[in-house]
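Repro:
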Amino acid sequence: MNNKDHKSLLSIDIAGIKLNNPVLTASGTCGYGLDMAGLIDLNKLGGICTKGLSARPMRGNAPWRIVETHGGMLNAIGLQNIGARAFVDEKLPELRRYDTRIIPNVFGYTVDEYIDAINILEEGEGIHGYELNISCPNVKAGGESFANDARQAAAVTSAVKRLQAVPSSSNSRRMSAMWRQSPAR
């Protein structure tokens, strides 16, 4: 069996996104995807779910960000990221060289911040879908996580669905939903 036949046996369609196989990176574990290029062949992945991206760059929390404890470790990175514009300009052109699907993880502290980030990402070519990090606090609703209130979760996912050209899914510890929006570009 040649490599092409092997790919077709493993291919899968999730929410309108055709993946070469069902293996995706977990958002954040491989940075923006290119961080792992020296360790694994990115062409062998079904998709890359990037670390979280916001409309504007964020520095994250000041050190100490990771502290070892008796029972494991505590992590408080603070969603540090380069921002959607830098991702489109610097990372996306490199990622497009690989035969894998690109699925940015997007977050915000208001519905408008999610929309701003996705509007910027939509200017780039080669994005196949979005993962929405709705575990962030909604600062306009008293700081409660979007995921803790079905109406808030619906507000952000509905707003994103109205403006985007590619599929998305919501990501939180309590909620997961996927839908078909339109074919990937």
